[in-house]
Amino acid sequence: xxxxxxxxxxxxxxxxxxxxxxxxxxxxxxxxxxxxxxxxxxxxxxxxxxxxxxxxxxxxxxxxxxxxxxxxxxxxxxxxxxxxxxxxxxxxxxxxxxxxxxxxxxxxxxxxxxxxxxxxxxxxxxxxxxxxxxxxxxxxxxxxxxxxxxxxxxxxxxxxxxxxxxxxxxxxxxxxxxxxxxxxxxxxxxxxxxxxxxxxxxxxxxxxxxxxxxxxxxxxxxxxxxxxxxxxxxxxxxxxxxxxxxxxxxxxxxxxxxxxxxxxx
Length: 265
Hints:
Layout: E1 12-21, E2 24-34, E3 39-43, H1 50-57, E4 65-70, E5 73-74, H2 80-87, E6 90-93, H3 105-116, H4 121-134, H5 150-161, E7 168-172, H6 180-197, E8 200-204, H7 208-214, E9 217-222, E10 227-232, H8 234-240, H9 244-250, H10 253-263
Parallel strand pairs: 3-8, 3-9, 6-7, 7-8
Antiparallel strand pairs: 1-2, 1-4, 4-5, 9-10
Helix pairs in contact: 3-4, 3-5, 4-5, 6-7, 8-9
């Protein structure tokens, strides 16, 4: 199998996906597609299945039914060898950064290079230096995660997610635990990565500031519906969605005001 992207195909295509934990179905018959170089958000209230959907998309949990395709290649039905190749085409930034505390920042970033490539140590070190520079952490390779701020940990996690030059990067609540200014800087970095590298970005979030600042498109999940209740430009959905649940979620004025006040100089 050749996992190289086919330009005419969506970066991600999800069809009839059913996500469950044991007998408890969280999402059923979820379908959507993500365009190449799109900044795509998965949004919704607490408990609607946003992180569950992400876990199924990146292979951390097998779905009950449906398919997930990357550039036309079926990730769910792939053999172990094919799945390993597909895993090289995307990176993941987990909510906490998920850095190994016993490893330096440089060692954390180098980990996927060690596991998934045959590069020599000097080559890995050069890539680590490049990726840390891309996220504004040049010179921090020998630091340990405990020596970094929350925002720096997220940046280090992003450097690791970018280590293999992935076509797609997934973010799980990237602004969680960050102050508004640090969150804004992270948003700017995400946009820069998309604009300079052509990376497809998929973000799980409920933060309105990031949604309206970054998103080309969103899908909104609902816990009661167990699926998608909206798909489109978040600004258009905020102003004109026929579903009151969507309008209410995207018009949380109290949160928007707090975020604007926090980011004011």
